[in-house]
Design goal:
This protein has about 290 residues and is an alpha/beta fold. It is built from 8 helices and 9 strands. Helices cover about 40% and strands about 15% of the residues. The longest helix is centred in the N-terminal third of the chain and has 22 residues.
């Protein structure tokens, strides 16, 4: 697994940089007045405010007094976790990339976008949060050095603080009650976040028919089915119920649940996540 990851990570890092550049839309444009240094806007002076807040140069151009407001610049800390377990290596002929590769691209690109917005980002359970223009490179080095021998389906790190935010990228092929318990522990200090489910189109559509042999990605178990088409509807119903349970577990803890299929380009999922952070998770923490 480590050797396979080492072969693909340089290419995925480049893909992540390209995706981030395409989606760099200022996702942290939630500017508001605060104790920062960057100019935000002028506004009319209000009676009762300290006179030393007046911008006399701007006021001289008009018959009103104006105050120079500065932007709130308190950075948030985001924690990113990327599932590198065996099931994430699955890829069908209908997909553009394996699930693991897509999760890595989305996670690395999102880290780049967050740093561009002035935030600090860390790999949950792997690195400390940093704010560096070379964050993709730094994260790639950390991922290469990490032990992926027994990669878990859900993070096992210490729960982040209430003002932190968490982004999980994985297929979440884990029993719903176990998922809920792990999420409860991860959120015990109140950190909001997003679970980004990465799904291969074959996993969603189940386009199999006739005699088919299925091989378990984790343990290598083999299962031969006489006519796979017969079980298609039952499979899709069970998957829908599973995803509904995951979504319910997320919403019950103030999180968001987002789906991304590997038949779509990476920048499509990245843009959707950026918009979700802008209008969803960002508001939960009351930044």
């Amino acid at each position: 697994e480590a050797q396979a990851l080492a072969r693909v990570l340089p290419r995925l890092a480049l893909e992540a940089r390209q995706a981030a550049a395409q989606v760099a839309l200022g996702i942290h444009g939630r500017r508001r007045a605060g104790p920062g240094e960057s100019f935000w806007q002028f506004r009319p002076f209000t009676s009762g405010e300290p006179a030393d807040r007046i911008d006399w140069r701007r006021s001289a151009r008009d018959d009103r007094l104006y105050v120079r407001e500065r932007e709130w610049e308190t950075a948030s800390t985001y924690w990113i976790w990327i599932d590198c377990s065996a099931s994430m290596g699955y890829v069908s002929s209908m997909a553009l990339a394996p699930k693991r590769d897509r999760a890595l691209v989305l996670g690395l690109a999102m880290a780049d976008l967050l740093v561009r917005g002035g935030e600090r980002v860390g790999l949950l359970g792997v690195t400390s949060p940093i704010s560096s223009h070379a964050i993709i490179h730094r994260f790639v080095e950390a991922l290469l050095a990490a032990d992926h021998t027994h990669a878990a389906d859900m993070p096992e790190a210490q729960p982040p603080g209430p003002r932190d935010r968490v982004l999980l990228f994985g297929d979440f092929i884990v029993e719903a009650p176990a998922f809920a318990r792990r999420l409860e522990r991860l959120t015990m200090r109140g950190a909001p976040g997003v679970c980004v489910e990465i799904r291969d189109p074959a996993e969603s559509l189940f386009p199999f028919a006739g005699e088919t042999e299925f091989i378990g990605p984790e343990g290598g178990e083999r299962w031969v089915v006489g006519d796979a088409d017969v079980m298609g509807e039952a499979y899709r119903n069970r998957l829908a119920a599973h995803e509904a349970a995951l979504r319910e577990a997320c919403l019950g803890r103030g999180w968001s649940f987002m789906k991304h299929g590997t038949a779509q380009p990476a920048n499509t999922g990245l843009l959707s996540l950026a918009m979700l952070l802008e209008h969803g998770v960002a508001a939960m923490g009351g930044r």
